[in-house]
Specification:
The protein is of the alpha/beta class. Helix content is 32%, strand content 24%. Helix 1 (18-29) runs antiparallel to helix 2 (46-62), helix 2 (46-62) crosses helix 6 and helix 8 (202-214) crosses helix 9. The radius of gyration is 23 Å and the shape is globular. The chain starts with a strand and ends with a helix. Bound molecules: adenosine monophosphate. Adenosine monophosphate is lined by residues 188, 304-308, 327, 329-332, 336, 354, 412, 414, 426, 429, 440.
Length: 537
């Protein structure tokens, strides 16, 4: 049999905007709890949340933002993030989600590339001084007119100015939106040295959030603990839109991931579900206080984002009470989920595969050289097609055409196998992306950055095995003639404040040459083996 499968066609796709879908939920569940910020104890019913979303949407209109304009958000998880997500969707403004780990180099790129007019930002969080970074590059960002800092009066002032805008104007704006309009840009680490802006529509993300949580049977009595970041689809689509499309309560445990606080939030808020990338579940399960938390309210949840170890899945079932836990696989460009396990799958399918094709999407595995669909059980590139495929990369038709072929198939760059029963497994990557603790890193981006160092002649970056993070970065560097060799500390100092910390190579090796193929391609596989041997990894 061929490695082709298509998901079920029920339930039907939602053919409405995010705003229309939210309004239906808020009307039905008005007085029930919609959103909880565990760290601060702040709470919203659906009616209160709708009121705050409308206030923010009117404020954005008062600030002169038109349909299709871009507004960015650069902040760890908080209730205002959620409010901004729905306020922008309601006013037809494209929300650009900026990774809170970004530093000036990446931030300025995202602002200019998407043409941000207004930015909502945290002032600071832990070691990130957003205000200082914004000030540092602000004069390089000509489109950026206004910054709304979250922990100041800025937000209240914006909402206050919105009281001058008639509610009718917002209602008219919302009514004129089309589900196919772009409403979100998410930057993913680029293969060409710069991040790419995956551009997603209402139809893309509303349906993916809705269907992902349909498959874990989420309903109005469910309370979902969301420790995964909102800047990424896992938080804002599978989490927020997954909840708002079902009237389920969103529980934000903390601004950044903290295993102990997440466990406490589950116990004290009586959460019925929890999300996480594998490293988050590992951190919770290995936390010294793990056994002391009452997790009896849990029933379900989703693990995704990187290969999900069977043993960690089993501990979710056996020790966290998540008898209906699910694995999802996807990528930002596909809204994100395209495969998921089902609640009634047996334990093997639920813990050892990424599931089968998602409702309404097609999946095939092809030979990366010929493009032919391979037979079941053979490895090849995972491709998917359907409503979930992004509109394209923002302002980059060339990169879009490389990723989505003329028949509409998104080529993921992941190597997968489809079993006889249609369930799939990820076995590797064609692209040389590194996943460090759930963060995706394209070596090319780091290489481009390091090329800027005056003493570096050439550089190649690879992922090497690491017990704690799964993978760590290693840079092989060829120095310019006469330049003193760099070490990891010197590279770190060069990247400090300009590159997200997780992208700074942990290991640096100065070499005379790279292993090359006859056609001039660097042999990264050989580099990985040599590095592992040399560093004893
Ligand atoms: P992102 O665009 O950040 O969502 O990252 C997408 C990439 O993460 C995919 O192309 C895969 O390489 C990886 N990924 C996501 N989910 C899984 C999973 N369940 N198993 C293995 N790899 C995954």
């Amino acid at each position: 049999m061929e490695s082709y499968a298509r998901g079920e066609l029920a339930p039907a796709l939602l053919e409405e905007t995010i705003a229309a879908n939210f309004a239906r939920t808020a009307a039905v569940h008005a007085d029930r709890e919609a959103l909880v910020e565990f760290a601060t104890g702040r709470r919203w019913t659906w009616a209160e949340l709708e009121r705050d979303i409308d206030g923010m949407a009117l404020g954005l209109m008062a600030a002169g933002l038109e349909k299709g304009d871009r507004v960015g958000i650069w902040s760890p998880n908080c209730a205002e993030w959620t409010i901004a997500q729905y306020a922008t969707a309601k006013a037809g403004i494209v929300l650009v989600t900026v990774n809170p780990a970004y530093r000036t180099h990446e931030f300025a790129y995202a602002v200019n590339h998407s043409g941000l007019r207004l930015l909502i930002a945290a002032s600071s969080f832990k070691t990130s001084d957003y205000r200082a970074m914004i000030e540092q590059v602000r004069d390089q960002c000509p489109t950026l007119e206004r910054i709304v800092y979250l922990d100041t009066d800025d937000w209240a002032q914006l909402v206050e100015s919105g009281t001058a805008v008639p509610a009718r104007a917002l209602a008219e704006r919302t009514a004129a939106l089309d589900p196919d309009d772009a409403i979100n840009i998410q930057y993913t680490s680029g293969t060409t040295g710069y991040p790419k802006g995956a551009t997603l529509s209402h139809r893309n993300i509303l349906n993916n959030g809705y269907l992902t949580t349909e498959l874990i049977n989420l309903g109005p009595d469910d309370r979902l603990c969301i420790p995964v970041p909102f800047y990424h689809c896992f938080g804002m689509v599978m989490g927020n839109l997954g909840c708002t499309s079902h009237g389920s309560t969103m529980v934000i445990p903390a601004p950044g991931f903290d295993p102990e606080v997440t466990l406490r939030a589950i116990a004290e808020e009586r959460c019925t579900g929890v999300y996480g990338v594998p490293t988050m579940f590992i951190a919770m399960q290995n936390h010294p206080t793990f056994a002391g938390h009452d997790l009896s309210s849990l029933r379900t949840g989703i693990m995704a984002g990187a290969v999900c170890p069977v043993e960690v899945m089993k501990r979710c079932v056996n020790e966290m009470n998540m008898s209906e836990v699910s694995i999802a696989y996807g990528m930002t460009e596909t809204s994100p989920v395209s495969c998921q396990t089902r609640a009634d799958d047996d334990l093997d399918r639920r813990t050892a595969t990424i599931g089968r094709a998602h409702p309404h999407v097609e999946v095939k595995i092809v030979d990366p050289m010929t493009g032919e669909t391979v037979r079941r059980g053979e490895a090849g590139e995972f491709c998917t097609r359907g409503y979930s495929v992004m509109k394209g990369y923002w302002d980059d038709p060339e990169k879009t055409a490389e990723a989505i072929d003329e028949d509409g198939w998104m080529h993921t760059g992941d190597l997968a196998e489809m079993r006889e029963d249609g369930y799939c497994n990820i076995v590797g990557r064609i692209k040389d992306m590194v996943i460090r603790g759930g963060e995706n890193i394209y070596p090319r981006e780091i290489e481009e950055f390091l090329y800027q160092h005056p003493d570096i002649e050439d550089v190649q970056v690879i992922g090497v095995p690491d017990e704690r993070y799964g993978e760590e970065l290693c840079a092989w560097i060829r120095m310019k003639a006469g330049a003193a060799p760099l070490d990891a500390e010197a590279v770190r100092a060069f990247a400090d404040g300009r590159l997200a910390h997780y992208k700074v190579p942990r290991y640096v090796l100065v070499v005379e040459e790279f292993p090359m193929t006859v056609t001039g391609k660097v042999r990264k596989v050989q580099m990985r083996e040599e590095t592992a041997a040399k560093l004893n990894l």
